[in-house]
Amino acid sequence: MIADTPGLMQAVRDRFAHVDACPFTGPRVFFENAGGALHLKSVVETSAFYASIPDNQGRDNAASTALVETIARGKADMALFFNGAAGRVFVGESGTEVLFRLIRTAALAAAPGGTMVGSTLEHPASNSAMARYADVTGRSHLRVAHDDATGVVGVEAYRALLTPDTRVVSIVHTSPVTGMAVDVAAVAALVREIAPEAFIIVDGIQHASHGAVDVAGIGADGYAVSPYKMFSRHGYGVGWASERLSLTMKDQLVGSAADAWELGTRDTGAYATFSDVIAYFDWLGGEVSDATDPRSRLEAAAGAIKLQEQALARALIEGTGNLPGLGELPGVTLIGGDRIEGREGVVSFVLEGAASADVVAHLNAAGVRVHMRKNDNYSGNVLDPLGLDSCVRVSPSHYNTLGEVAQLLAAMKALVDG
After folding, report:
1. Choosing a second label site near 296 at 20 to 30 A (CA), which of 90, 129, 376, 410?
2. Is 90 helix (H, G, I), strand (E, B) or coil?
3. Are residues 82 and 122 both part of a single domain?
């Protein structure tokens, strides 16, 4: 665990901008990482540098050559992150836009007829795209029901809706509301067993900063992430597509390579800042393991992040020191139960007799930044079946500490005690 290695937690925190203070309000604990993680200081510096360069790609000058090299390095780092050397990586305007493109391409490329299958756990980014292109292609959009009690959708729940004529399957890797991870590899294996030709598209936006991504191991055809949720910045999304999906007909310029995904000139700074993230994982993996090759160090970093965040989730739910956890406070109900295993970066709850907005305001006044999720098109799929109009979402990351958890729990105890 990161916190168990002397000096490592401080070294981690030193690499992030505004780790313990907001530039507008002063000192605060940042537990709003699911809404957008802290940015690496290197990302901030890199963004400014590439924003200042007037040259374009593909010109006969040294600056243009450097830009092309930066993009090539960024693509290599993206492929390393996805473990997707056999496919294609590309940059889009956001993770949501990338999901729409992957799902649109899969729906239009699949054999006619059949069905498209998703789940009720999914974010509207994938659910909306699935609904839209099921309608365009004249297919039924079937949704596997998630379990309200556990906040996840199980593998066997998919079996009833999968058939040999299933054409496209969307899977959310981790719910940004319940925080619970789906066994994506097992779901994909079931899809391949029943509908081997189906295209499998994964929403990895919540998962990407909390665990390793392995599209080769999953057997997916598409995977999307939002870099601003994985320590980079806003303004771009990153996707990976399998070779078979990449070689289908898609939106692209006439005369482009058959497997080309990107439309127009992308921001070189997007590739460069993604490389900054991979460099950070590489450094962290080297600190927590003896691994020497880049992929192994990346996986070691992901393992250390997982252990640190499990400790934070356990403290949030079960308590730390003499402070009771959220799962022990009277009147608090946890969304998706109190399970630690499988939880990735989110603990959501409601407090009986208190509006979620008031709880968020109370914590903010105590110097703890959290967020309210409303029963709307973003979170209603989870909250509506529970009869809730909102919830409070606490979303820690690996650079958060047990002391910061204690600050939140102390504020919550004061609120409950009145």
Report:
1. 90
2. strand
3. yes
Residue-level pLDDT at 118: 98
Averaged pLDDT of the chain? 96
CA–CA gap between residue 221 and residue 243 (Å, rounded)? 8
The answer, as to whether pTM is greater than 0.90, is yes
Q: How far apart are CA 404 and CA 316, in angstroms?
A: 10
Query: In the structure encoding, which two tokens stand for residue 258, read together?
Result: 């058959």
The DSSP H or E segment spanning 319 is strand 319-320
pLDDT tens-digit map of 147-200? 999 999 999 999 999 999 999 999 999 999 999 999 999 999 999 999 999 999
Number of domains in the chain: 2
In three-state secondary structure terms, 278 is helix
Q: Which band of pLDDT confidence, cut at 50, 70 and 90, is reported for residue 106?
A: very high
Looking at the fold, whether 79 and 180 belong to one and the same domain comes out as yes
Does residue 82 sit in the same domain as residue 25?
no
CB neighbourhood size of 82 (10 A): 25
CATH value at residue 313: 3.90.1150.10
DSSP state of 30: E
Give CA–CA dist 17/43, Å, rounded: 9
